[in-house]
Amino acid sequence: MSDDERQPTAEELERFRQLGLRLDRDARWWHEGQLVEHRGLALALSRWIDRLEDGRFIVRLDAERFAYVEVEDAPFVVTTVLLDHEADGVHVSLQLSDGSLEELAYDTLSVGADNALYCEVKAGRFSARFSRSAYYLLGELIEEAEGGFALRAGGGLWPLRTR
User: Fold this and answer.
1) How many Å is the maximal CA-CA distance in the chain?
2) What is the DSSP letter of 132?
3) Cα separation of 128 and 80, whole Å?
4) Can you list the positions of beta strands (E) in 7-155?
5) Is it the case that residue 5 has pLDDT exceeding 80?
6) C-beta of residue 75 within 8 angstroms of C-beta of residue 126
7) What values do phi and psi take at 12, rounded to 5?
8) CA 101, 152, 139: angle at the middle one, nearest 5?
9) Rounded to 5 degrees, what are φ and ψ at 79?
10) β-strands 142-145, 148-153: how paired?
11) pLDDT tens digit string along 93-144?
């Protein structure tokens, strides 16, 4: 068997998966300490984010090929908020750092350190941190409520939990 046909050992595969990828709190990708400046590559990496059963974040190419990612905060950032005013009230859609758009899971809103706002995305598989501008846009729907603050949208009043 030639070297080209040899399958990598488990140790070789594990070393290969240690590519030095990092995702910072602003959804910027880094490789071995260098900012990934190619927009297309950064967007592709964001779209390939996944999580192993043990909780570690990865970028996944297929079932066998993936690399580990150090995630500084949340794996996604809400880049902007779209408010849809309907008869039953305001509905909120989120534009995420991977380019996708989804409705806010209202009951998952929480406030973390430094008053950062978070929610769950991708059917509850991941958390997302609101960018400052997205937080300001959503702010017009936040009001004081019993015991703290709540978001009035999506047909209800949703308390902001502490993360």
Assistant:
1) 71
2) H
3) 12
4) 21-23, 29-31, 34-35, 49-51, 57-60, 66-71, 76-86, 89-96, 101-103, 110-111, 117-121, 126-130, 142-145, 148-153
5) no
6) yes
7) -65, -45
8) 70
9) -85, -30
10) antiparallel
11) 999 999 999 999 999 999 998 899 999 999 999 999 999 999 999 999 999 9
The predicted model scores a pTM of 0.86
116 burial level (CB within 10 Å; 0-12, 13-18, 19+):
middle
Which DSSP symbol is given to 108? G
d(CA 46, CA 122): 13
Q: Is residue 66 within 8 Å of residue 58, measured between CB atoms? A: yes
> Which structure tokens are listed for 138?
């959503």
State both tokens at 45. Answer: 């990496």
The C-alpha atoms of residue 28 and residue 42 are separated, in whole angstroms, by 8
DSSP state of 135: H
DSSP 2-68: -TTTPPPPHHHHHHHT---EEE-TTS-EEETTEE---HHHHHHHHHTEEE-TTS-EEEESSSS-EEE
